[in-house]
Amino acid sequence: MAKAKTNVFFCQECGYESAKCLGKCTGCNAWNSFVEEKIKKETRKTLTLCARYGIITLYFDFAREVIEMSHKRTQKLAFAALFAALTFAATWVSFPSPFGGNVNLGDCILLITAWLPLEPWSIFAAAIGATFTDLAAGYAIYAPATFVIKALMVLIAVLIKRGMPKLPELWRALLSGVAAELFMVTGYFAYETILYGAASALLNIPFNLAQGGIAIIAAILLSLVFSRMPLPETLRSQNGLFGKGFTKKQ
Fold first, then answer.
1. Does 31 or 53 have the greater pLDDT score?
2. Hey, is 112 helix, strand or coil?
3. Is 0.70 topped by the overall pTM?
C-alpha cells in the first residue's frame, strides 16, 4: 500500500503546487523557485475526511435519484393499470354493429391515456383493456386485431402529440385524435374484410366513424375538466395536454 505524501513543493513566485520539485515552474516559468513544505498531520486528516464525505454525499445523491426514478416508474405503472381498467369499463358500454363487432366508448379513455405522460405503458394499457373486453364480451375473434389496432392508435397519438410541440394543445389533441381514429376505422375495415368480405366491412365504416367522432369530442371535453384538477406530478407533462393546463396556464 502506497504511503500518503507528507511533503509538497510550492513556487515562491506564483504559489504553484507540485508533488515534486521542479526546475522550472509551469505556472509562471520561473527557474529554481520551488521550496519544500511539510503537510501537517491534521491537514492530511481533514483532506481525507473531506474526500470521504464527498464520496458519501455523491453516493446518497445518486441513491436518492434512483429511488425517485423508481417511484415515478411505479406510479406510471399504477396509473397505466388504472387506465387499462377504465378502458375495459368504457369499452363494455357498447352496442353491436350490424356485421360483427360493436360501437363503444373505449376510445375516449384510450385518447386520454395517450395524451397523458404515461408512455410506453399507455400503449399496453389501452391494448390490454380493450382486448380483455373483447374476450369477456364474446368477441374473441376480434381480440388479436383489437390488441394491435389499439396499441398503434396510442402510438400514433403520442407521436403527433410530441412531434408538433409548436401547435396549440387543443389542435394537437384534435389532430392526434383524428389520426388515431382514422387508423382504427382503416384497421377494422381491413380485418373485417378478411372475416366477412369487403361488402360487409364497408357497412361497419359509418359506425366506426361515429365511434371515433364521439370519442374525440368526449376525450377533449374530459381533458378540459382534468386540466383544472390538481393532478399528481406523474400525470403532468411540459409537452402534454395535462399538468400545465389544457387551455389555462397554472
1. 31
2. helix
3. no
